[in-house]
Specification:
- The protein has 143 residues and is α/β, with parallel strands linked by helices.
- It is 38% helix and 21% strand.
- It has a five-stranded parallel β-sheet with strand order 3-2-1-4-5, with helices on both faces.
- The longest helix has 17 residues.
Length: 143
């Protein structure tokens, strides 16, 4: 009996996000569930470091995150994609609330400029406010 029918996967291009995607693919196959891949372009770029302006996060950079993720999805798993704009945590929470997802899967630590500036508050905010189960994953290195 399947528990999950539609899984939302939040992607930011980080190693943790890639680990989350791989796990979501395994769950989708096991549960015969559909995946939706979500990437959020923040409205305002956040500078990192003194006097250094990083390249802006653009639709194109987030489209590439989605394209790379799609290459990891086997043909037998149904998948849709979403590219949204706005505050990252609030946008993920809005998307979860709007559609009927059974599970949200995401990395526990992103590596985007915005994530570093917020010191993990995106993951924390989503975890505490989501109205569906949240599975957060970390990538790890074996020594």
């Amino acid at each position: 009996m399947s528990i999950y029918h539609h899984i939302l996967v939040a992607l930011d291009g980080s190693a943790d996000s890639q680990t989350a995607l791989r796990h979501a693919v395994t769950l989708a196959r096991d549960q015969n569930a559909k995946l939706t891949l979500l990437s959020v372009v923040p409205h305002q770029p956040t500078p990192v470091g003194p006097g250094v302006a990083p390249p802006p996060e653009t639709d194109e950079s987030h489209d590439e995150i989605i394209r790379e993720a799609l290459r990891e999805i086997p043909n037998d798993i149904g998948v849709t994609t979403r590219l949204e704009h706005g505050d990252i945590a609030m946008t993920i929470l809005r998307v979860v609330a709007e559609d009927q997802y059974d599970l949200l899967v995401m990395g526990s630590h992103g590596h985007s400029r915005v994530h570093r500036a917020l010191l993990g508050s995106v993951s924390e905010k989503v975890l505490h406010k989501a109205k569906v189960p949240v599975l957060m994953l970390r990538s790890y290195c074996e020594a």
